[in-house]
Amino acid sequence: MKMEEIKIFDRWSTKGIEVKDLGLAKYINLEPVLVPRSGGRYAKQQFYKSKMNIVERLMNKLQVPGHRGKKHVITSGRAAGKTSIHYRIVKEAFEKIEQITKKNPIEVLVGAIENAALREEITAYQVGGIIVRRAVVTSPQRRVDLALSNIVQASYRKSFGKKESMPNALKNEIIAAYNNDASKSEAIKEKEMREREAEGAR
Question: I want to staple 111 with a disulfide (CB 3.0 to 4.6 A). Which of 82, 117, 158, 178 is the partner?
Fold first, then answer.
């Protein structure tokens, strides 16, 4: 008896999808799962989130996108909700991505994460009485985290309190990040801004 291939949402296969950025290859998990929901299995051990399917990590970010700015200039306190809601948002966004790009939406998501993952950022530390800002290389785990956060936060800002629906906003942000278009993608814009700052602090 031939076993059927496991597909995400029972629609999209992860077979043949490659992570071209070798630094991120270990941190973008593409193991096939029918329903991207591990029920907190990886939450108790540090860094185990890399064993979680990348689509599930996107769904988790939709629940808590985080805030922007030190004084919570833009907060995501209203974004929490049921898993079923975020499941529907991601599935609908993927369907629209497939219609527009004619490609596997998981491949498009992986490309968007690779493009939005910053390589350098600034850290500040104290030397005597002086605060020194220094450029540092961003760890691969943090690169994936920040890329997902920036994609979701940008979608959230574009849809909250506006006419645009969340699936549409998420679809537009992922496609723009996949195309590396800083004029349409806030995640790419944020990455380029941070890398420019880091370059100036070298």
Answer: 178
